[in-house]
Amino acid sequence: KAGVTQTPRYLIKTRGQQVTLSCSPISGHRSVSWYQQTPGQGLQFLFEYFSETQRNKGNFPGRFSGRQFSNSRSEMNVSTLELGDSALYLCASSLVDSYNQPQHFGDGTRLSIL
Amino acid sequence: QKEVEQNSGPLSVPEGAIASLNCTYSDRGSQSFFWYRQYSGKSPELIMFIYSNGDKEDGRFTAQLNKASQYVSLLIRDSQPSDSATYLCAVNLSGNDMRFGAGTRLTVKP
Questions:
Q1: Under an 8 A CB cutoff, do A100 and B31 touch?
Q2: Using the beta-carbon criterion (under 8 Å), do B96 and A97 form an inter-chain contact?
Q3: Could you give the CA distance from residue B8 to residue B13 in angstroms, rounded to a whole number?
Q4: Which residues of A touch B95 (CB under 8 A)?
Q5: pLDDT tens for residues A29-84?
């Protein structure tokens, strides 16, 4: 069974640009969560989608947004990029919903802002 | 108070010893608890999950949960150098909201 697939693996952008990251969950998994990981802040929850609806959202500005499609694939968008957005962005999927279900992570997208 | 707290370490143990990793959480309504291992430059990998008070064993790993004291721990028996990694505690807060601790860096010395 294929794992969680994130594309692209690496991305370099400049301040002010926007970026879209993609995540394909494990087949059959309907919940997709996004996290930002930095050395200083650790793993920070961005949002969670289930059945195309955002169910939970972390404490990130509105520049961070996401969506989920009917096939459970998800995208995350960051607009007006700032230097502080440089991080590893991780997507995780779980079977039905994240409650009581383990999340399985993709390899992440490493975003660098110049 | 942080929602999920871990000792950042580093925790250093000799090969063959027992490594003990601890985690406390603030939300008494939390129902599910997870341990992930993350090697440098890699994504977190699920090791164990536990829902009920007590111990849960899987090979060399034992997860322990005490909801009254709001702590969860991970014991690694017969530690190997390949166990050297950062261990992340994750708690699913009431309301279906996953939170991670900052992680404990473990080094197992040959």
A1: yes
A2: yes
A3: 15
A4: 56
A5: 999 999 999 988 889 999 999 999 998 888 999 999 999 999 999 999 999 999 99
Residues 6+ apart with CB under 8 A from A19: A11, A13, A77, A78, A81, A111
Give yes or no for a contact between B3 and B27, defined as CB atoms under 8 angstroms apart: yes
Q: What's the CA gap between A36 and B61, in Å, rounded? A: 28
Check A45 against B100: CB less than 8 A apart.
yes
- Exposed e or buried b per residue across B58-73, where buried means at least 16 C-beta atoms within 10 angstroms of its C-beta: eeebbbbbebeeebbb
Residue B81's pLDDT is what? Answer: 97
Q: What pLDDT, in 10s, does the model give residues B37-82?
A: 999 989 999 999 999 999 999 999 999 999 999 999 999 999 999 9
Per the document, the length of chain A is 114
Pull the structure tokens for residue A22.
Answer: 């993609």
Which of A38, A50, A103, A110 is the best substitution to test chain B (most B C-beta atoms within 10 A)? Answer: A103
